Every structure is written in structure tokens, then in C-alpha cells.
Amino acid sequence: MTEEEKNAWAKAFQYAFQYLDDNPWDPLNNPKNYAIEFNGKYYPNKQILKYAEEYLQKNFPEFLDVPRLSGGKPINDFLASKGANAVTLKVTNESVNELQKLFDTFNPMIYNLGWYSLLKKYTDIMQQLKSEVVAKVITSYEILNQRFKELAEDNNDDFLDRYLFIKKNGLASISQQVIKIDNRDQIRSAVNERFSRLEEILSSIDKRKVYNLTHKLVNQNALAVLQRFTRAMFPNEFTSIDASNHFTVLKKILRNQFGIKLKSKDSFDQQNEVLSLIDYTDVYKAQMFFWALKSGDIPSNSSAEIKSQEMNHPLNQILFGPPGTGKTYNSIDKAVNIATGQSGTHAENKVEFDRLRKEGQIEFVTFHQGYSYEDFMVGIKPNTDREQLTFKPHKGIFYSLVERAKANYIAHKDQKQELTSFDTVFEKLIAPLEDGQTIEIPMKGGNPLKITKVETSGIIRFIKPGGSSNTTLNLDNLREYFNSTKKFNGDGLATYYEPIVKHLKERQQPVAVRTALKKFVIIIDEINRANISKVFGELITLLEDDKRMGAENALSLTLPNGETDFSIPPNVHIISTMNTADKSIALVDIALRRRFEFEGYYPDYNALAEPSLTILQKINEAIYTRKKTADFLIGHGYFMKGEPLDTILIKKIIPLLMEYFSGRTEEVKEILKAADINAEYSTLNYRWHIHAITIDETHK
């Protein structure tokens, strides 16, 4: 940040502080988790950002380059980067904590991946269009609409259709109050003839002004449509519930199930108050969460129930994200946790992982373009052991794992009746010895044998029927006689062993015994590199939770090798990893998406030290600016192997950038330059050379 920009932001902050001092904010907007501190006073970070933007727009528009920010922490981080004193506050509201726990376990991509993708897409586009209108890049509706088509990558799409007229536009589905057909023509004419009407709406930083101006433009009380449009412009101010009747249902749920009663009276303030109940970094997840809560798709659980749910690992999951973000690394930890119910450090987990692989409870496979159904399931393979070419049946890695898991599952389900063990019966028999009593064992002659003591060494002391106590028995021998692993040999001591064994067996009780159920795990690395439909074949249906053995809708299939009634037991877990730089999750086969839970992995800058942290952050910012997606970011893992920084850049990062940008050396050079790396590509030896790495003083 230049000195000029730093001064501009300092003045903007002063303006925001002064404005909020002169115009106290509503107590409902009091900072909860994150705040900006100035002179010992804590200000809500959203309000500071709002009025700082207002000041910059009027006085320093050249520095008004605020990214789309979601939630308290990203806003705090951004304002801190501009010089503000951002602080984290302690949360004490247990009701809100309960709501937060539910939100943290909510996965919008599992709930509705299609909605999540469209919601993000069209809200992001609106933010881009807003910034270009403010910058005077867009000066007419024709330019606006053409720019919208480019960003949407759809020449048949239309700005007004998308944001105002369509019932189901990606942000939300509205069944009533849609804009009338006659009104649509009038609106088109109005914005074409006088773009300033739409320009005033898109350049405003006041949500109420946007709502009122849009209301005036459409000239109709389509309130849900108006709020949906306003939400696209101010995503951090609204839930995805645009219709007032649906929002009333949400308020009742918050009050009745969480004890949270909204303090605001104004509908806009209530929307903002609800959204501020949770701490989020993904605004689209936050918007969708409250719709799911309102719809009854998320039960309100106690903390214990939530913890219990977290222990129930999904049967099928895909860890997705750009390269180097720790997907394979974390898959090992997850596999061990699923298989054993325990988890230690990664090093400890890796030792356990290797042991479980040897025992056949965990398998690991990497998919590639040539990977087939025969490799994964069943088929035939050439038999190279003989001179004449023959073929033999082949069991694939997944089929073999399922066989082992199924045997364990059936054994677990098949409850057996067994008699109590020697140790159980013997412990109960000698329990009275603790109270100083003796144990009488009936003998054929009439008088009993009396056990007086069992020593820790295994010596059994007893009194013979005749009164002598000089003889002892051995506990290990008694156990072997009881279990029939040793036969009585007719010696003198057998006279005493036999009646004790007989007495113990008479005390045995039948007990139900189950084989312990084990969880079997297969890790599929790089799942999207193979032709998934061909590799899984008919298995795709059997993967579903309710199609597994023992489930309500259990299914079995006939395999190509003729085996009938093949099914997958519920103790088989699939963990897959997917590199989004190879294939976006949006392009993954719908049948597969529907059956897997998705967990995103992205660069963790906190795992790095300087200067690697700043370099990676700047490289990723430059990538995102060009690619407009997080799929092609570079992960922190490349910088965590102890190699010199220039080696990492030359051998790992630059080749990846060359792949991302199709070998365009100038573009790669510009990306490196954005990260303060002076690099050149030599056409003499066709190699990259790094001349200097210069990091801002604050990062040294």
C-alpha cells in the first residue's frame, strides 16, 4: 500500500469514527465477535467499512477497490490491512453458540449444490457490475447488459431478466409477486432511455435507497422481488429469505427453538440482525443456512447431539480444492479416525495408517486415465505364469475391500450364544475370598475341598477334605483343563482339579456374543482423473446410504462376472480427493455429486511464515484476478517441505503457473511480479531465472 493510499484510508477511518460518534449506531449492531477499536471504543466493523467506503467514493475513488467480503473475520482482516486496529471479542451468548454449532456443520454444497453455485455466480457478477458502474466503465444499459453476458458467459442471458423478471433466477425462487409483463417493457424502455435511473441504483451504498429506487423503477409492489434484487447488491445484509411470510417462520424458529428474540422492528434491520447471529466467512453458506433452518431441513440439536453427529462420518466424501492444500494429507488422518475412532498427530496417524493397510482395513489407490472397472471391481487378467496365454478372474481393490467388510458385517450381525469364559466364572467364584471367606468345592467322598487363597503368582491354596493344606494348584493348569487344551493325566492332583473344573462349568451362563464391527476405508486419490462413470459402473447406485446392506432400501446387483446379490455393507467408507485445477466440482458427474459429501480445502496462509506467506498470498490474488475462481489457487503445502524459497518457485510454483496459463511466459512473469518476484524466462536455455525477491518492509 502506497503512502498516498495509506493516508486516504486513515482519513476514511477518521470520517467513519466521527460519523458513528455523531450518529450512534443501533445497539442491535453492537459488535459481537469482531470489532474495530479506536481510542478505547469498539466499533462494528461493517459500519466502519460502510462509511469508510462512502468517504473514499467521494474523495479518493481511485482507492475504492474493496473486495467482496463475507462475515466478521474477513472484514476485520481487510480493514486491518488498511491500517485499522481490528480486534476479536469473546462470545458469551449460549443460544447464539448453539446456532453457530449448527451452522458450522451445515454444508451448502450437500444441501443444494446447484443453488449454491448460481447464488455465488450471480451475486459475484452483481458486485463486479456495481464496481464498474461506480468507476464509469459502464455508462449505458447496452454496455451493462453486454458486460453481464460476458461475465455470465451466456449471450442469451439478460440483466433485467436475471435480476428482476425471472421467477427462479439463481438467487431465489419467487412464486408470487413477479413483475407484470406490461411493466417489464416499461422498465426496459426506462433504463434504455435514461440509464441514470439504473446507474443511481447500482452505484448507491445505501440498501434502503436501492430498494426504494428499484421500487419506483418497477412501479409494482413485488416486495420479494425488490428484496431479492437488493440482496444481490448487499449480500452481507440479508438472508436468502426474501418473502416476509417465510421470514416470519424463521423468526418463530429462532424464538421457540433457540430462545433468540429479534430486537429490531424494521424488516431490513431484522435481516441484518439474523445474519449477524453467526460468524461466517462464506456469505452464500450463511444465506442458505437460514433458508434450510426455516424449511426444517436442519434440526435444532443439543450440543451432545451435535457432537454425536460429528462422530458419524459420511460414508462417501470428496475432499476438493486446488493443489497443495492438504487433501491427501488430511485423508490419512480421516481414514484412521474412521477406522479406529481415535486420532493423534499426523505422524502417529501415519504409523496406524500403515498398520491398518497391512491388515486390510484401509486401502489406498490413485485414479488415472487408464484406470478401469476391472482394476476397481472385477474382471479378467492375463495369466503370465504359463507359457500359453490364458486369462484368470481378477478381484479389484474395491471388490476385495468390500468382501472383507461384508464378512465382518455379517459376523457382527450374526449374534452367537456362547458360555461365559473361564476368567469370568472363576472371578465370580473366588470373589468371597476378599471378605475372608473360603470357597467350598464338592468332592465325591462327601467332605468339600476349601479354597482359601489365590495368589497373584497364580498359586491356588486350598484345604483338602482331610484337613491338610500343604498342597497347591496352578491357575494356568486349571484354565487349560477347563478349556480342554490339557487333558487330565491321572496324577494325584487331578483329584482336586477335576471337581473344581466341574464346579466352574456348572456355573457357566449362556451369553450373546457379537464380532466387533470394523469400519473399512478406501482412499481414492485424484478421483476426477479417471472416467468415474466407467470405473464405478453399476456401483454408483449401491454407494448411497439407504442402498447399503441392512438399510431400508437395500439393493444388490449382478456383476459382469456372474456373481449375484452383490451389495455394499454400511461399514465401507470412501474418502476421495479431487484437484479442482484439473476439473471443477461443477463439472463432476451429477450422479456422483449426489452420492458424495464435499469438503473444500483452500490455502492456509496461517501455516506459513514470512516471506512465503506474503508471496503465496500475492500469487493467489493474481491468479484469482485472472481466473475468477478459487479452483486454480496454489496451496500452502508446496512451501512446507523445508526447501529453499527459490527452489520451490523454480521447481514447483512456476511449472504450475505455466500449466495454468498454457505456457504464456509473459503472463506468468506478471503474476510473479505481483508477488514482488523479479523473474525472467530465457529462450537460450528455456529455463526460468529468479533475479530477486523483494518483500515489503512490513513482511521482512
Quick structural gist:
Helices cover 47% and strands 13% of the residues.
Description:
It is a single chain. With 700 residues, this protein is of the alpha/beta class. The chain has 5 domains: 3-90, no CATH class; 106-294, no CATH class; 365-413 and 528-600, no CATH class; 419-513; 605-699. Helix content is 47%, strand content 13%. It is built from 28 helices and 18 strands. The strands form 6 sheets. The protein has a 5-stranded parallel β-sheet with strand order 5-14-15-4-16, sandwiched between helices. The protein has a 4-stranded antiparallel β-sheet with strand order 9-10-11-12. Strands 2-1-3 form a 3-stranded antiparallel β-sheet. Helix 1 crosses helix 2 and helix 10 packs across helix 11. The protein is elongated and about 120 Å long. The protein starts with a helix and ends in a 7-residue tail after the last strand.
The parts where pLDDT drops under 50 for at least 5 residues are: 300-311
Summing up helix and strand content along with how strands pair, one would put the structural category as alpha/beta
Number of strands: 18
Estimate the global geometry from the Cα principal axes. Answer: elongated
